[in-house]
Specification:
It is a single chain. The chain contains 3 helices and no strands. With about 100 residues, the protein is mostly helical. The longest helix is centred in the C-terminal third of the chain and has 42 residues. The radius of gyration is 26 Å and the shape is elongated.
Length: about 100
């Protein structure tokens, strides 16, 4: 099995793991009073803070996985385009053959 066969799943799970780690750190900082947290609005603040911190970390740390995911998606889209254009060409050829046969009669 290729190492790039599950690139999207790998990237997404690593991205979620980085976010959850940042959320854990933010929650611990809130629990020990380093970041002031008051009620549900404080928890929303911690989630937003974790998202804000995890985005640049993911951008830097997961660049290789993001490139692999991009290659995987590009390959699938190119294959889909090729199959679609071949199917359309076959349908056009079939229609042209039926039209030529109808005109020949």
């Amino acid at each position: 099995m290729s190492t790039k066969s599950h690139a999207t799943l790998r990237y997404t799970s690593l991205r979620a793991s980085i976010f959850l780690a940042c959320l854990l750190v933010a929650a611990l900082l809130g629990h020990f009073g380093i970041i002031p947290v008051a009620g549900p609005a404080g928890m929303v603040f911690l989630v937003l803070l974790a998202g804000l911190v995890s985005a640049p970390i993911s951008y830097v740390v997961l660049s290789k996985q993001r490139d692999e995911m991009s290659e995987q998606i590009v390959g699938k889209v190119a294959g889909l385009r090729t199959r679609t254009s071949q199917r359309i060409a076959a349908q056009n050829a079939e229609e042209d053959a039926a039209d030529d046969a109808a005109r020949a009669q």
